[in-house]
Amino acid sequence: MIKIALADDHKMFAKGIAGLLEEEEDFNIMGIFSNGRELLDFLESVDVDIILTDMNMPVLDGEGVIEAVKLLIPYPKIIVLSMYDDEAIFLKCQKLGASAYVLKNADPDELIYTIREVFEGSHIMNFQKVLQQNQDDLYADIYKEKFKLSKRELQILRLIKEGMTNRDVAEKLHLSSHTVDAHRKKIHNKLGVSSVAELIRKALDMNL
């Protein structure tokens, strides 16, 4: 189990994220906190693997959380949840020691896969990857509704159609090969195909 703690002063958002993550069998939400101070008090007696934190919080903000958590032995890995695709903020979080940076309006599976990557130590922290989380897609709503494909899955499907290997896709999207492989298996299941040839044919039929 991946033990997770969440700090965000927007209660509805925090509860929504917690509810989403609790649907994953390997995630255990250990606590939800409205500021960094409450989180640190909790960590005095409970160990977690991953901390999800907003940057703007009362009492103790995300910057203070990252700095304080890095003093713990062993310390949990930190994923920043942010409203801003701002490179200066991203670089500051990276310099402080955050392991990942996810936009709050990213697809849910972006956060789920990022948590697993960070836990496994395979996450690639790259600002271009953050920008991709915020890109609109003309077909996204259509295929998300029809096939339950996420934005990331649509990106990967297009690249596979272009003939890219898992390694090629991983390099282009700044993902680990393991994560791309997991996405591909989900895409196969959602589209009801069992081979690359069928997958490409389906992508062509979808006019991707």
Characteristic key phrases:
single chain, 208 residues, alpha/beta, Rossmann fold, Arc Repressor Mutant, subunit A, 2 domains, five-stranded parallel β-sheet, 11 helices, elongated
N-to-C span: 37 Å
Strand order of the largest sheet: 2-1-3-4-5
**In CATH, what is the homologous superfamily of the largest domain?**
Response regulator
* Structural class estimated from helices and strands: alpha/beta
* Strand fraction: 5-15%
| Assembly state | single chain
pLDDT < 50 runs, ≥5 residues: none
The third-level CATH topology of the largest domain is: Rossmann fold
CATH class of the largest domain: Alpha Beta
Our count of domains comes out at 2
Sequence of secondary-structure elements: EHEHEHEHEHHHHHHH
How would you sum up the major sheet? 5 strands, parallel
**What's the rounded overall pLDDT mean?**
89
The amount of helix comes to 40-55%
Per the principal axes of the C-alpha atoms, what is the gross shape?
A: elongated
Task: Give the CATH architecture of the largest domain.
Answer: 3-Layer(aba) Sandwich
Number of helices: 11
Can you describe what's shown?
The mean pLDDT is 89. 53% of the residues lie in helices and 13% in strands. The chain has a 5-stranded parallel beta sheet, sandwiched between helices. The protein has 2 domains: 2-133, 3-Layer(aba) Sandwich (Rossmann fold), CATH 3.40.50.2300; 140-205, Arc Repressor Mutant, subunit A (Orthogonal Bundle). With 208 residues, the chain is an alpha/beta fold. The chain has helices at 11-22, 36-43, 62-69, 87-96, 108-120, 127-133, 140-147, 151-161, 166-173, 177-191, 196-205; strands at 2-7, 27-33, 50-54, 77-82, 100-103. It is built from 11 helices and 5 strands. The modification 4-aspartylphosphate is found at residue 54. Keywords: DNA-binding, Phosphoprotein, Transcription, Transcription regulation. Residues 3-119 form the Response regulatory domain.
